[in-house]
Amino acid sequence: FMKRILYYFAICFLFVGLQTSASAQEVVTVQTFDNHHQFFGGGGNTRNIQESFTFPDGDQTYSEIMATFTLACPDGGCDDWDRYAEINIMVPTGEMDSTVAMIDTTYDASGIISSIDTTWNAPYEVLEAFEIFRYITPYGGSFPDSWSWEYTQDLTDYMPFLKGEVIFSSFIDTWVNPGWEVSLTFEMTEGVPEKEPYKIVNLWNYNTMNYGHPDTDVEALLAPITLTAEEEAHFTKVRIMNTGHGFGVTDNAAEFSPKVHHLVVEGCDTRTYDQFLWRDDCEFNPLSPQAGTWQYDRAGWCPGDQALPWDYDITYLLEKGEEYTVDYNLQPYTNLCGPWNPDCIGINCAGSACSDGTNAYYRISSQVVYYKANPQYTLDAEIVGTKGLGGLDCNGYSEPQVRIRNNGSETITNFNLAYSVDGGGYNFLPWSGELAFGEFTFVDLPVIEATDTDIHTYEFLLSGANGNFSDENADNDLYSDSYGFANNAVTLSLNTDDFGQETGYIIHEQDNPENVLYEGAYFENLVEIVEEMCLPNGCYTFVITDTYGDGLNGAANAGGTDGDYTLSTANGQVLAELGSASFGSAESSDFCVDNEVVGINDQTTATAVQLLVQPNPSNGMMQVQLNGLEGVPTDPMQLVVYDLGGRKITEQSFSGVSTTLDLSDTPAGFYLMRIQNGKQQYSSGIVLSK
Q1: What is the pTM of this model?
Q2: How many CB atoms lie within 10 A of CB 284?
């Protein structure tokens, strides 16, 4: 019923919005690079060009900034090969530096240095590069001189830099002449964006970072960075650009090797974001056909296409003015193909020779973008998310919270949060305080002390902001999440063969394969993977997979080693284990777990009592009954009905476990009923349809 009401509100707001015609917005066009020729050879080198261009100055804001990038063949044709390329904005830092022009060293009669006279070039201001656009050129050998291709990308995030004199650099890793021609045009629509970027900070930036090489300390290069959350920021996101390059080594990394990396953000809460660095759609590239291997999938890019960034909204993890930490963790990997490995064999080198000593490497750039929000509504309270819910809990104890944000210009002083568990009665949690635009607050839910292993669904409805029935944006007032106590501890011990990147596993419900509880893939070679998990009582299927189709049969290759796995309980019971190393593409095992629930089974909670309201929906006359109470209460219970604005509609006392409720004179709508029985409360939603 709540969803129907919210849908009705949403349609109403949409209808009202359609009655207002937007005024025309002026679009400002700025041409930067214009058929600039980038090449190498023939006495010239313009692989990297840098030039300043003029943008509108002042405090003008833009609702959208779109960039059109054009790549074209110069006279004489395009480069044959797919080349890495990027465009940066070069931001002055205010720091000065210089370079050495000449060192004049003099010696005495015995050959000892007597003086060093260093001549410096003219000082220059240090520029900091912010990557804004990345692409890989196509295999262009078959293209005519007239060929060109356009890419478009939203670059509104870089508004703080796009004013006055702006220095751009364009780099193409070409080694031929004629190479390529590039053009870059900006179309800037004047207006106020919903999220206005005002500050950008670089994080980890490496043009080339070796991956899996014994002399490269990836953990040090990608060390955690601690920042302070901006006081003025209403929204914050992390942007990561990463593409893999190099091949002919272990796992054919990094160009042809899918990997899963992780961004970890630790603020008022901790969240891990997955980054599956792989493009599996290269054969559908609109820039086709090309020469070469353009249709082969790659690590984050395809020949002739943009390499798009990964954006992670971390707003709800931050508290203004407080420190937070970001950490970028690459999937563990060791390149066994090279002279540094005395035991190197052909299987380690994806068809290359051990003596080649080539490297897998990544090109990484990353930034934090801070935004000031411009309210689109006067009154708009939003359910942002939950803390302490979601997924499975191995402990059976949680202190859940719901996070609420004010997205409207009007300060919120009160609202009501209604929630239900498993479609039951609605609990009513009023809140009061002061919540200014862009600020957050947490609403505490009752502590969870699990007494069963079922997955429980929580539904939330936010209403009554500042005493109003609903706010102006109903789309963000409804939210759902789940909680499940998994009381069976299980351990997966997986030993990979020589091709760990081919191996994966999943655990899903036996009768519902779409409900995947755990999964993993793309492991390092010849390592032991130990995963600690927990499962609710029930029956499941463990599936081990191999993308190449030869199972864990590494020994089928000369000098190779088989892999194996075991899934077991805490008391050593084996639930699944390897049947045959040469299982092909997949091997599955069914198993069940049914451990005694560890919890407070004798507690008396409000959720153990069922509150029935019949009929519901109703025209006004209803019978209210409490089922599951231990004995008949000796004291009268208080029944109160509220509207969604938090206003009391009626109240009455009753003895026993049932009563009649008469709302015949109450208008149609959704209401919340609360019954107080001593320290216990029972709630339900009521729908009046007249």
Answers
A1: 0.72
A2: 9
